[in-house]
Amino acid sequence: MASGGPPFDVTVTHEGLDTLARALRAEADGKQLRKELAKNLRDALKPGAVQAKSAIMAMSSSGPGTAPALRSAIAKKIRPEVKLGGNWSGARIKAFKTRNVRGFVNAPKRTNRPRGWRHLVYGRPDSWVTQYGVDHWFDYALIYDTPRYKAAVHEAMEAMARRIAERVE
To answer: Is the separation of the CB atoms in 11 and 20 below 8 Å?
Structure first.
């Protein structure tokens, strides 16, 4: 490692993030620094969450206007998630489960896969239908800009590592 650099190696992996989180815990104001790092990582991933929300909202809807709307319920549950420490450290964009939305808890997961899902038609207890989402809408919304998000996360981690290194020197 070159002299004058941070006292630890930071890479864009969960191990690199774990290393940075451990270094933050060692600092006197580590809790505040961790909050700031988490905020910066979420900010780096927000454009990806916006893209994923746009992708689900672009999915066609052929049914009558039943409430609550499935696409907007899924879009509300897409957000960047950052965890520093514990069993898992990382930063990702996640589509959380949609509890209390027409009894369809796994809506983000089901609408993202190529095969459909079966459900009863509302008001007709004997009538089943197969409904299809858009194949990999979540994956395709993020895959082309993955290097950009990785670079933004890496920059947020590097900025925090430089800040800690400046204190050590």
So the answer is: no
- pTM of model > 0.85: no
Residue 8 falls within a domain, yes or no?
A: no
pLDDT of residue 49: 92
Residue 1 lies in a domain: no
Number of domains making up the chain: 1
Strands (E), the chain: 78-83, 90-95, 117-121, 124-131
pLDDT in tens, 72-119: 889 999 999 888 877 777 888 889 988 877 777 888 888 888 787 887
Q: Looking up tokens 């920059």, which residue turns up?
A: 155
User: Tokens in use for 11?
Assistant: 């890479």
Name the residue range of residue 74's domain: 14-168
User: What six digits make up the tokens of 161?
Assistant: 């590592």
Rounded Cα distance, 64 and 142, in Å = 30
65 inside domain: yes
Cβ count near 90 (within 10 Å): 14
Q: Is residue 1 classed exposed, middle or buried when 0-12, 13-18 and 19+ CB atoms within 10 A define those classes?
A: exposed
Say if CB 108 and CB 78 are below 8 A apart. Answer: yes
Average pLDDT in the 140-167 region?
A: 85
